[in-house]
Amino acid sequence: MNTQTKLVLFTMLGSLAAWAQSTPGAPEDNGLTPKTATIYVNRKTLEIDQINNGNTESLGVAIANGGNVIVGWEDDGDGLQDIEAVWTLFDSAGQSITPPTETTSVALQGSVTTKFLSYFRADGSAVHAWQSWGPKIKANLFGDGIGMGATSFGLDQEVPALAGYFGDANGDYPTVQLLSNTGQPIRILVGVSEAFATRDAGNIRIGDWEYLSNGNVVIFGESRQNDDLVSVFGGSAPWRHVIFRILDPAGNVVKAETLATESPEQTGNHEMWHGAGSIEGGFGVRFATPEGVVVRLFDNAGNPTSTNIILSAATGFPQAGGGGRGDGAGFHGNGKDAYVAACASGAEAWVTVLNANGTVRYSRSVADDLPGLAAVGRVDAAIDAEGNVIVVFGAKYDANNPGAIIMGRRFDKTGNPVGGTFYVSEKELPDPATPNAEGPRVAWRNGQVAVVWESRSDFDTLDPNTGEPMVVVALRLFSTFTPGSIEAEGLTRIVPDTPVVKHDQNALGNWEPYASTLGTSTFLIEGNTFADDGTFANQRYVVALQPAAGGAMKLGEGFYADNGQPFKGQINLSRQNGNPGRVAGDMRPGAVNFMVGAEASPHALPEFQSDNRWNLGFDRLADGRYGTVQIFRLDPATLTQTPLSKALDSANGRLTSGFAPGNQITRFGGEIVCLDNGNFVSVVEDRSRTRAPDSDCVAATIFAPDGSVVKDTFIVALGDIWSNVAPFKGGFAVRAKPEDGSNTRVIYFYDNAGNLQGTVDQATSGVAFDPGRGDGTRLLGHINSPYVYIAGRPLNTQIVKVAAFDSRTRQFVAIADVNEGAFTGNFDRVNGAVDALNRLTIAWVSQPAGYEKQQVAARVMAFDGTKFTPLTRSFFPFINNAKTGIRTYQMTVAMTTKQICVAAKGEINYENKPDQGPNSPNEVNFYTVFSHPAPAEDPTTPVGGGAAPKLTITRSGGNVTIAWDASATGFTLESASAITGAWTAVGTQNPTTVPIGAGNQFFRLKK
Question: pTM of the prediction?
Answer without folding.
Answer: 0.86
